[in-house]
């Protein structure tokens, strides 16, 4: 099958109109398509598409554009929340691992569990060093210490994905100690960090969050499962994980995340449908500490 030919902005407008999407202000619609890309925009239209390829009768371009902007703003809010957790997790892992195995203990494969691929880990770590080769602290450690990074500086270079994998590859005894810092057990924390890593990457790469089905299904305490009941692969479940990771940062979570999230949902309440993201009616009660 041959690839489709590129279309002009005007042709894109006409395609949308033919499929039943009402466009109130054509010049504004074209300006918006220039900003977000037609392909990205149509991803938000999928939920409104009928079997015959037409869109719902009441669908307007302006509503979908509003959903796009909401999605952009909630990604930024979530990315900030994950960033705070990323720093906290790295700090706790570095402190424990450094005191247990020494500054360079992470270089020794014996300090990990049997599923740990140490060669792959070192390869990734060398890769992030190269990616940050112009950072002052990286240059300093290369010049002064022959490229040897103690664990508390090494973790500063870890991506969220590397941090998640590093924790998963620790010995069970180490995972248990670190998990207590988050008021949970190690299988739950391992699941939460993986979930936070995936969520962080979606947000950082500006991928759509609104009305998507997540592939990962993080573990939650039974009380949450009974409370939520629906939306197993939803954004809301991922946000429950972020809440639990903030168990020692409750005021920060309530004030820096829940309050702006509530305001954001209120701002776009006429255009979005929070149920498509798995939010129950009591979402704010569930997410607030």
Characterize the structure shown.
- With 289 residues, the chain is an all-alpha fold.
- It folds into 2 domains: 9-59, no CATH class; 69-287, no CATH class.
- The chain is built from 14 helices and no strands.
- The longest helix is centred in the N-terminal third of the chain and has 41 residues, at 61-101.
- The protein starts with 8 loop residues before the first helix and ends with a helix.
- 28% of the residues are buried.
Structural class by helix and strand composition:
mainly alpha
Distance between the termini: 53 Å
What percent strand? Answer: under 5%
Based on Cα principal axes, name the global outline: globular
Radius of gyration: 23 Å
Approximate helicity band: 55-70%
Biggest sheet, in brief? none
Order of helices and strands: HHHHHHHHHHHHHH
**Count of alpha and pi helical runs:** 14
Counting structural domains, the number is 2
**Got a strand count?**
0
Instruction: Report mean pLDDT, rounded to a whole number.
Output: 94
Which stretches are low in confidence, meaning pLDDT under 50 for 5 or more residues running?
Answer: none
């Amino acid at each position: 099958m041959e690839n489709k030919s590129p279309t002009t902005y005007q042709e894109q407008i006409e395609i949308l109109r033919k499929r039943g999407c009402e466009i109130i202000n054509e010049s504004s619609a074209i300006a918006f398509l220039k900003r977000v890309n037609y392909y990205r925009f149509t991803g938000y239209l999928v939920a409104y598409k009928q079997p015959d390829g037409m869109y719902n009768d009441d669908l307007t371009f302006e509503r979908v554009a509003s959903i796009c902007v909401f999605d952009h703003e909630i990604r930024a809010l979530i990315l900030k929340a994950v960033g705070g957790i990323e720093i906290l997790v790295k700090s706790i892992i570095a402190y424990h691992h450094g005191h247990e195995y020494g500054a360079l203990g992470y270089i020794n494969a014996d300090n990990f569990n049997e599923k740990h691929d140490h060669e792959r880990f070192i390869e990734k770590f060398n890769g992030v060093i190269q990616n940050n080769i112009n950072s002052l602290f990286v240059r300093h450690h290369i010049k002064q210490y022959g490229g040897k990074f103690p664990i508390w500086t090494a973790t500063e270079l870890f991506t969220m994905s590397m941090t998640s994998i590093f924790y998963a590859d620790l010995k069970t005894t180490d995972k248990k100690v670190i998990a207590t810092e988050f008021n949970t057990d190690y299988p739950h924390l391992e699941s939460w960090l993986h979930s936070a890593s995936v969520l962080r990457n979606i947000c950082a790469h500006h991928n759509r969050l609104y009305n998507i089905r997540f592939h990962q299904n993080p573990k939650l305490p039974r009380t949450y499962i009974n409370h939520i009941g629906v939306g197993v692969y939803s954004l809301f479940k991922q946000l429950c994980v972020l809440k639990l990771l903030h168990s020692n940062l409750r005021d920060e979570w309530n004030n820096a995340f829940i309050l702006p999230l509530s305001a954001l949902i209120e701002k776009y309440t006429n255009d979005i449908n929070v149920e498509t993201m798995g939010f129950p009616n009591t979402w704010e009660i569930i997410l607030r500490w």
